[in-house]
Amino acid sequence: MMADENIKLIKQFLTNQDANNTIDRSFSELITKRNRVTIPEFFDYYNNLFYDIPQLGSLSHKELVDRSIEYLGNYQDPRDIEIQNLNLQIEELTGRVNELEFEEIQDEIGELTTKVIVKVRLFGSEWPNHESSILHKELDTHRLVFKDGVNDKYLESSFEKNRNEDYEFITQSKIFTIFYDGRNKTTHKDDGVAWRTFEEKIFEIPEGDNVYVVDLDLFGERAYNMSYTTYMQDNIDEYEAQFG
Fold it and tell me: What is the structure's pLDDT at 23?
């Protein structure tokens, strides 16, 4: 029989301060930490769950997109940039098409329109014998009316200007009329001098002419008992009522 052995038990006591310094009181030593998901693992999960993730909602594709765009800051979708560039190209092409169409329309209008040049020439006559007898040469006492049924023109002018003046009109009509009436007071009492066509002269533009010239040669004649002031007012009222 073996001799009795004495076993000495030593109990160690720790103060509170020693315990605080040596013992981790958190749960980290009691619970196993969960492994952190790596980026490749995240995308594996994402790909596997892609069609299971709802499109809208708090846990959805839209939530992921919104958070990613917010994180990126000033993000521009390449598709949006491409769409913007395409829209700019469309605008440029549309502008060019409009220009070409406008040019074609102008060409067509140019083929349909004719420039009418009216050359007004006022000549002297037997009466009055001297041009110095004609008064108020600078006053607008002369009227030229051009009528084509579309853009009728009513022009006021003077003897001095219309002695040798060219007027230009653009018309799409093949027929037009011209009426001229101009009067001036003279030094011979109430008798004046008149240049006039008496009635509307009708002109027909030949086919294919883009420029048509009219020589309007007018010779002065005596206008008996012409009260200058009364004549002017009466004719202004008459012309305005007739031609607007």
Answer: 52
- Return the percentage of the chain with pLDDT > 90, whole number: 26
Give the tens place of pLDDT for each residue, 96-131: 888 877 776 666 555 678 999 999 999 887 778 888
The angle formed by the CA atoms of residues 233, 239 and 244, to the nearest 5 degrees, is: 125
Residue ranges per structural domain of the chain: 113-243
Token pair for 161:
């200007």
What's the chain's Rg over C-alpha atoms?
A: 52
In sequence order, the 6+-apart residues with CB closer than 8 A to the CB of 200 are 145, 147, 177, 178, 179
Please check whether the domain covering 113-243 is classified as CATH 3.30.70: no
184/201 Cα distance (integer angstroms) = 22
Contact 140/157 with Cβ under 8 angstroms?
yes
* Helix or strand run (H / E) with residue 202: strand 201-204
Q: How does 86-109 read in b/e, with b if 16+ C-beta sit within 10 Å?
A: eeeeeeeeeeeeeeeeeeeeeeee
**Cβ atoms of 179 and 201 closer than 8 Å:** yes
